[in-house]
Amino acid sequence: MSKITLTLAAFLAVLFLVPSGPGSVAAGAPQSCNTFTINNASAHALGDVTISDGSGGGTIITIPGTGTFDTTICYTAVAVEINGQSVDYPNAAVVTLADGSSVKVQWQSTNLVDVVDVTIINKPVQ
User: Which of 30, 91, 96, 102 has its CA 20 to 30 A from that of 85?
Assistant: First the structure.
């Protein structure tokens, strides 16, 4: 009978079938990184926007006004938070900004969010 010697790490890897080697992804490991885009078509600054991801973390991007803003995230986005108000993927919602104005936040995909003005016209009845 031959003697087999295993290190503790090798034993645990075999025991728990932990994936290892090229192409394997352990639980909690980042996926490939992707560009996340916020298209702010509103006339308002959004301030700091937090992109929450599947790792339980988040990425903050400052949106100073109208335009397209990109950042890199390494997990799948699950929500965006603007002025303390969270909009979960794939929902749309109206968010009130710090200046009191309102914008609509609409997910287009897990890597793209559109923000547009919300116009409410109050005319007196004549």
Answer: 30
